[in-house]
Every structure is written in structure tokens, then in C-alpha cells.
Amino acid sequence: MDNKFEITMPARVRNRTPHSQLPTPNSGFTLVELLVVITIIGMLAALIVVAATGALKKARQTEIKAEINQMDGGFNEVKNKSTAFPPNCQVDGAGTTSADPINEAVVLADVKRYMHLAFPRHQEPDVVINALCGFSANGVLIPKGSAMAGGMSAGEALVFWVSGFSLDPKYPISGDGGPSYQIDKIGQTDAYSLDPVESRKWVFPCHVDRLVPRGTDGYFDRTSTRYVEYTDPRNSAKVRRINFWQYVPRKSEQPYLYFDTSRYAPSASSDVPAATAATGLSGSNAPIYIYAFKKKAASGNALQYVNPDKFQILHCGINDKWDDDAFKKMAVPIIGTNNASDYLLYPDGPFAGDIANTIVNFTTETKIEDAAK
To answer: Residues 140-145: contacts with CB within 8 Å, 24+ apart?
Structure first.
């Protein structure tokens, strides 16, 4: 019999982890270390947000610029077909006075001349051509507050001239596919909703869902006075209507603006604002003081338009705010002088604040601020 024996330790003791392998209180993160990590993560997140926001802003600016370039191509196409760029149509509705210097007779003559250039065989009635410039059929200025007082604004003109015309040589406006559409009678209550604007022959890739003004029902705003109704020249038993739309960029409430700079040098009678008091396009019925950009002429102190002999397309940019005070420093009617030293001129400016974000068609840079550098 073997007298050797073994001491058998209990399983709970035999399997116990050595003391040297036990976790120590100092092996985890301290509160200070956690705070440092959280702070670093917060700083990185802030940097990412700033970078992403900047990238989104740049993307939206580039998108607006690209759309302006498309419109630029559209107006050049219009000119190729008509031999001239379309005129602006704004009038102040008060006759030519020192306070309201726009020469309405010249505005109307320009539109009539252009219509005969673009459509030599047209027989559109005077009520249509006159309404474009804020005149009634008998040649009297439409009073402020009435439909189409003040004529087409710079935003309305942009849409009207590039939204396509009828192929009917006699009736480019009143014919099928033109800017007007047929209704049953003057004052028809649902006339505002019948506009087949989606089927127009646009000369640039227009997103019709961004045409304004629209009511809550999605149709042309029934409260708007920016329309004209007239007897159909092809069928006296019918009536036709034109709704004067404006076009806005994505996520914007401000329209693109068109300025004809091909006909005249800047002067009190021809340097029209985007909209006058008569148009009623602002809440206070005050003029919308947005003007075409100007520069110093090659010699002397005379002014000339930027992009002379062509046109300008403007948008206020992603801040969605026009800098009225800065634009007033570009306006001949407001300043009343033709001395270049009195003006805010392109490219030197200086263009700071809201006007620095203005996006135009006459520079390859995105913002006017960048073009001036």
C-alpha cells in the first residue's frame, strides 16, 4: 500500500485567476480622457459640417450659374431667329417726368419694331402688343393696380421671350402653342387654371414647376393682376389669355431677371429698373430698384452697359436677397448724372455684402464678387 497522498484543491480555488492578471482600477478611461475624446469628436464634426455647408452653398451657386448659362444660350437662339435681342417692356405708368423718366413711347415702339423683325407677317392685335408695355388697346397707359399696369417686368420678360411662340406666322402669340391660350369669355372664373404652360416650346430646359406666381392650388395665382385677356383674333366668339410668369431657381423665391443692353447707352429714359411702381410686384407697390450693371466707357467719364449690344441675366444668389441700396448706385434715373465717378461700376465695385452674391451671365466666374477680383 502506497502511503503517498495528494492534496486536492477545490475546483473554485484551482480555476481562480492569478492576482497579477486581474484588471486594475487604472486600466479604463478616466473622465478627463473621455472629455478629451468627446471634444475632439465635436471639433471634427464641426469641421465636417462647415465643409459640407460650404460645399452645398457652392453647389447651389454653380447650379444657378449653369441655369443662367442655359438661358443665355436661349436668348442667343432667339436672336439668331429674329436678328435682334428682345427689348424690355417696363414703363412707370406716369408719362415722362423728372420723377418718372422712362419714355413709354420709345418702349412701345421698340416692342412693335421687334415683333415685326421676329415675325414679319404677324397680325397680332394692338391690345396684345400694347399690353406688353402697359398700354390699353387705344394707346392709353394702364392705371396702377389694373391688369398689366407698368408692362412686363424684367422677370416676366425673361419667361415671355424664351418660352416659345406659335408656328403660325400671322399669330405667333395667339396661335396654337404660343404664350396665350383660349378661354370662353372675359373674366372666366377658372381661366387662371387652364394655362397649358407645360406644353410650351421652351428654348432652354425650363422646370415649369418653378414658374411663379402660383396659388395654393398649384395654378397661376388667381389674385394676380399679371395677365391680359382679349378677343381671339382668329375666332371673335372666343377669348384668349396670357399669364405673365416669372422663373425662380430651386429653393429660391426671387426670379431671374432679363435686361436688354443692346439698344441704348445708359440714360434716364432707357435705364429701366426690374419693375416699376406701376407693376405692383412688391408689397409696398414701390419700384424694385434692380438695374443692369454698368462700366466706364473706354474714354472720358461716359458710362456703358456691361455686355453692350447683348443682354444681362441676373439673380441675387443663394442669399435670396437683392441689395437695393447697392443697385441704386448703378441707376441713371436715381443719380441723374452720366459721370462714371458717381457710380458703383463693374468690375471694381467694390461689391460687398448681399450684392457680392449676385450671379450674372456676362462673366465666367460664379459670383460678381469673384469676377471683380
So the answer is: 141/91, 141/93, 141/94, 141/95, 141/104, 142/93, 142/278, 143/93, 144/93, 144/277, 144/278, 144/280, 144/285, 145/225, 145/280
Rounded to an integer, what distance in angstroms lies between the CA atom of residue 65 and that of residue 312? 13
Closest C-alpha among 251, 312, 317 to residue 58: 317
What is the model's pTM? 0.84
Question: Helix (H, G, I), strand (E, B), or coil: what is residue 153?
Answer: coil
Contact 237, 213 (CB under 8 A): no
Residues lower than pLDDT 50 in the chain: 284
Q: Is the dihedral of CA 64, 69, 72, 73 positive or negative?
A: negative
Give the CA angle between residues 76, 292, 130 to the nearest 5°. Answer: 70
Do the beta carbons of residue 182 and residue 232 sit within 8 Å?
Answer: yes
Point out which residues pair with 311 in neighbouring strands.
260
How far is the CA of 80 from the CAs of 117, 305, 321, in angstroms?
11, 22, 33
Q: What is the pLDDT of residue 69?
A: 97
- Nearest one of 345, 313, 358, 273 to 159, comparing CA atoms: 313
Which residue is it, cell 377658372? 190
The predicted-structure confidence for 155-178, as pLDDT tens digits, reads as follows 999 999 999 999 999 999 999 999
Inter-helix orientation angle 154-162/31-82, to 10°? 60
Q: Give the separation between CA 233 and CA 187, rounded to whole angstroms.
A: 18
Do 55 and 233 form a contact (C-beta atoms < 8 A)? no
Locus of grid cell 402653342: 177
- 192 has which bridge partners? none
Task: Supply the pLDDT for residue 7.
Answer: 53
Cα separation, 267 vs 261, in Å, equals: 12
> Which residues of 202-250 form beta strands (DSSP E)?
211-212, 227-231, 239-243, 246-247
- pLDDT number for residue 99: 62
- The secondary structure element, H or E, covering residue 257 is strand 257-260
Amino acid (1-letter code) at residue 350: P
